[in-house]
Amino acid sequence: MTPSDGVPEAGLLTALSATFPDGPPGRIGVAVSGGGDSMALLHLALRVFPQHVLALTVDHGLRPESAAEAAQVAAFCAANGVSHQTLRWHGPAPTGNLMAQARQARIDLMAAWARGRGVTDILLGHTADDQAETFLMTLARAAGLDGLSGLRPQFQAQGIRFHRPLLQVMRAALRSYLAAEGIGWVDDPTNEDDRYARARTRKTLAALAPLGLDAGTIAHSVRNLAMSRQALQASVADIARRHVGELAGSLQVDGEVLDGLTDDLHRRLLIGALRWIAGASHPPREAQLDRLRARLAGRQEATLGGVRFFWAKDRLTMAREGRAVGGTVAQAGIWDGRWTLQGPAVQGATLGPLGAKGLRLCPEWRHHGPAAVLATTPALWVGETLVAAPLAGVGAGYTARLPQPFAEFILSH
User: Fold this and answer.
1) Which Pfam family, just one, is annotated for this protein (predicted)?
2) Which of 223, 258, 285 marks a domain boundary?
3) Was 263 annotated as part of a binding site?
4) 35 is in an annotated binding site
5) Cα four-point dihedral sign 352, 353, 356, 360
6) pLDDT by position in tens, the chain (length 413)
């Protein structure tokens, strides 16, 4: 579908239906801020998947009006028989990019909400306008193909699938739909506030429209770039399936394979490994990646982004760096951003790193992998007592799991 602000109602319903061509997998979360895009998404989802929709609102607390806007969404949901919950963020860190922190908090809160309700899929209301604005913002940062490929129609985070079914729909079409249905929405004042890059970009986009560079045209070009990126990622995933081994959350690949890759495929394979192992939301800086690649070409050890790279007989192992692993979480939680443990619940138990101390409590660990790898795997503890370390051979009835294999991760990120 070519982006258009004149999409008929049937086209909007078709865009939603295409999200789950075989039918919804179960209950579906719909993220609703109260703005026009997300309100239209919620109403459309209720028409297409009437028995499956749950709604959630993330209140970042960054504006004084946000609580009232969340309450308006709650009232709309109550009037339409939809289960709704408001999730509240308890504020940014003292340093760092506020908007980036807010975006990550939103994903974290939504994923935790979904896991607690057995929801595997969440719909987001991004539009073709958002796609075009994102393109201009990344273009201003001299981004490459990945950045210019824009917002992805689907992605996975923390075991939850997120969908953007309206990426080929213009914002104006959604507001026309809401007006026809008699549904109100909230206009976020930050969208007009020039202190924010997206607001400035939105005004620039409007100024470019007379040249033929409107949001619809740019979004269509972004879609073409995304197809090129997908083809490259498919090649990397194929290399991963054929040449990269997985062991206890680490990856192994022969140096000869690495040396034979083209520059771009080599880059992408390492970026994928960094993100799969450490859970990074973004690739490293180019200068950092260049230094890493130079060290690996010389068969030297290296660390980057919480991942350790080391060699044995010209075979490279990429594993979690011990000092970078996460702290303890509840037994039923997600440890180090990616591991879950299945097995009997134990009162007072916590999930955390096995570590060198725990490894000494695993008499058969040498049969399961290198110490540097196993020490960074999940273990179940009650105080100082090791209950289970399934990847090191301790704890019958327990299994440690990752969200997805490395090759699948590359395709979905």
Assistant:
1) ATP_bind_3
2) 223
3) no
4) yes
5) positive
6) 455 555 668 889 999 999 999 989 899 999 999 999 999 999 999 999 999 999 999 987 767 788 889 999 999 999 999 999 999 887 666 555 666 777 888 998 999 999 999 999 999 999 999 999 999 988 888 788 888 898 999 988 888 999 999 999 999 999 999 999 999 998 877 777 777 788 888 888 888 888 888 888 999 999 999 999 999 999 999 999 999 999 999 999 999 999 999 999 999 999 999 999 998 877 888 899 999 999 999 999 999 999 999 999 999 999 999 999 999 999 998 999 899 999 999 999 999 999 999 999 999 999 999 999 999 999 999 999 999 999 999 988 999 999 899 999 999 87
373: exposed, middle or buried (Cβ count in 10 Å: 0-12, 13-18, 19+): buried
Q: Is 254 annotated as a binding residue?
A: no
Shared domain check, 130 and 23: yes
User: Which residue is it, tokens 């040396």?
Assistant: 259
Classify residue 235: in a domain, yes or no. Answer: no
Are 95 and 165 in the same domain? yes
Are residues 334 and 252 both part of a single domain?
Answer: no
Look at residues 390, 352, 333, 293 and name the one whose alpha carbon lies nearest to residue 158: 333
Number of domains making up the chain = 3
Q: What is the 3-state secondary structure (H, E, C) of 18-84?
A: CCCCCCCCCCEEEECCCCHHHHHHHHHHHHHCCCCEEEEEEECCCCCCHHHHHHHHHHHHHHCCCEE
Q: Which domain holds residue 332?
A: 325-404
36 labelled as ligand-binding? yes
Q: Could you give phi then psi for residue 3, rounded to 5 degrees?
A: -55, 135
Question: In sequence order, what are the residues at sequence separation of 6 or more whose Cβ sits closer than 8 angstroms to the Cβ of residue 135?
Answer: 148, 150, 218, 219, 221, 222
DSSP state of 93: -
Same domain, 92 and 218: yes
Residue 212 marked in a binding site: no
**Together in a domain, 273 and 341:** no
